[in-house]
């Protein structure tokens, strides 16, 4: 038994406009966003794949390509997995819900909705799940500024050889270091 599904079979199952790649024993299928739900049904129902086990769904910020929605599913019959991926536009992040295909997608879609701002059309109860009431923004998008990183001193800001780090005795040579900002905070954020 091979480690991955046959790419030709997968592309025939998910339909037009799809592409596939294999890496590290897993096959990734890229489908156009309008064909997301149909592709999921296809890989679940076709006997060549039989991916009836839903593992997880999430997203990542793919910058210029938009937001990538990724679902990992598993075939118990074939003992292989598939990553199903689609890209949506950042400004109008909408894609069909997979709760009608795998009921386990419910919680994952709610989390992705909250953290990335992706609207899953047809979801039965798309409401916030993790963040406090009144929270504004989508914290896992790249443009979201992590204000706590800018408000608190960042451990990487102090050079180990400076007196603040080495105590009053000082360290070896003192080097000047330009002020750096924490990851995720624009260089000019918070300066007046």
Structural account:
By secondary structure, this protein is α/β, with parallel strands linked by helices. It has two domains: 7-121, Beta Polymerase, domain 2 (2-Layer Sandwich); 145-185, no CATH class. The chain is built from five helices and seven strands, in the order αββαββββαβαα. The strands form two sheets. The protein has a five-stranded mixed beta sheet. A two-stranded parallel ribbon has the order 6-7. It is elongated and about 60 Å long.
Task: Offer a concise description of the structure.
The chain is an alpha/beta fold. Helix content is 20%, strand content 22%. The termini are far apart.
Topology:
Blueprint: H1 7-14, E1 19-23, E2 26-30, H2 36-45, E3 53-61, E4 67-75, E5 80-88, E6 94-96, H3 105-116, E7 119-121, H4 147-151, H5 163-166
Parallel strand pairs: 2-5, 6-7
Antiparallel strand pairs: 1-2, 3-4, 4-5
